[in-house]
Amino acid sequence: MATSSAAASRRVPPDAPALTAGLISARLDRLPATRTVWKLVVLLSLGFFFELYDLLYSGYVAPGLVKSGILTPATHGFFGMTGVASFIASLFAGLFIGTVACGSLADRFGRRAIFTYSLLWYTVANVVMAFQDTATGLNFWRFVAGVGIGVELVTIGTYISELAPKHIRGRAFACEQAVGFAAVPVVAFLAYLLVPRAPFGFDGWRWVVLIGAHGALFVWWIRRSLPESPRWLAQKGRLAEADRVMTALETAVEREYGKPLPAPETVVETAAARGAFADMWRPPYGKRAAMMIVFNVFQTVGFYGFANWVPTLLVKQGITVTSSLMYSSIIAIAAPIGPIIGLAIADRIERKTAIVVMAAANIVCGLLFSQSSDAAFLIAMGVGLTLSANIMSYSFHAYQAELFPTGIRARAVGFVYSWSRFSAIFTSFIIAGVLKGFGTTGVFVFIAGAMLVVMAAIGLMGPKTRDMALEQISH
């Protein structure tokens, strides 16, 4: 977007301080939340929609994989590779590699490029996976897709945290998750329609996977409208490019705002960080990294312990396979509602408080779910579990992106988030074993213990971040 020199001078007057990374961030944080700002958030959220579709279809297609004879419902041996647990574990093994080993790619090459190519990566892998007929082939390509999804998860969270002004950062993550979690009822409904059947002689689960792969068609369209993060450009010393991005944003926002933009607030220079792994362990980041590692290891048990196993858990409660998929679809409708609620409350409630309260709600709803076989009550508690998990999800995604400086944000988020993937590799096998030995009640007692650790870690160690500039939080 072009702008006149007169317009530019209104935004950066002649006596303004020298252009620095801190000034770029201050200019961004003072932007009103106009259509242009929200458009950027929504475009990134559309990428998250396709990502969550691919991430969360595991539990919904599992009955179809068993029906087709590729996988078995039970796991033979703790690390048996022919059961449903191996399919879920393969995804999380890929997610672990993608986040821990490749999360820093966005710090090196930029948010925009990695957002695009990681999305294309896992889309291609899913297309290949849809034509597999053996457990080995299925699990391998699910692993490959997981690598791309892991990189994308880190990149989108980093991207949004840096493009959203501080006063809407919580709502920006709520928007991302609301759009993203709309994929859950979509995939659940498609699974309900297709998994028990074989349209045109092609297994229903394969149709579910291929429909999600159409996300690649939107990649280049989304990419054209996204600027590179001005914070990242400035941190890399590319101040002229960062200034051009900011000037274009300011021009569009001022036109929509209808009056001159407010002056930037006090400039806080970004914390020095070379992008090295060692920077993550310097005060105060070391304590924050340790806290988020503990959090991510245990939050995974609650989130994916239900999301990936809900049809199987319903069957264990005495519900038929077809009915369990229908109930799962009804429960899944609640998935985007939690983040929609967040659009109203996310920037009013401290992030750490929301995480602790929702973990407690997860414990209560889960234990009640395990004690009933009544369909209506199971659905109600399933909705409660979904709402609490997804409010906690947008809260912690915003939170962990806020805790680290721009120079190491993607690397640090990738590293601490990778522990949730590492945990999930084993969680799927543990839950399979607990379900076999102790039933649904045992599964939710296990989940409740994990959520208590989550509450303690964030409640006792977490700093406050609401309505603070990223640079202020970094210092």
Give the count of structural domains. Answer: 1
Tally the helices: what do you get? Answer: 22
Question: Whole-number radius of gyration?
Answer: 22 Å
The CATH superfamily title = MFS general substrate transporter like domains
Q: How many angstroms separate the termini?
A: 34 Å
> What is the class in the CATH system?
Mainly Alpha
Instruction: Please give the number of β-strands.
Output: 0
Unreliable runs, pLDDT <50, ≥5 residues?
1-12
Indicate the structural class: mainly alpha
Largest sheet: none
**Taking all residues together, what is the mean pLDDT?**
87
What does this structure look like?
It is a single chain. With about 475 residues, the protein is an all-alpha fold. It has one domain (about 20-465): MFS general substrate transporter like domains (Growth Hormone, Chain: A). The protein has helices at about 5-10, 20-30, 35-55, 60-65, 85-100, 105-110, 110-130, 135-165, 170-180, 185-195, 205-210, 215-225, 230-235, 240-255, 285-305, 310-315, 320-330, 335-345, 350-370, 375-400, 410-460, 470-475. Helix 2 (about 20-30) packs parallel to helix 14 (about 240-255), helix 3 runs parallel beside helix 7 and helix 3 (about 35-55) runs parallel beside helix 10 (about 185-195). The longest helix is centred in the C-terminal third of the chain and has 53 residues, at about 410-460. It is globular, with a radius of gyration of 22 Å.
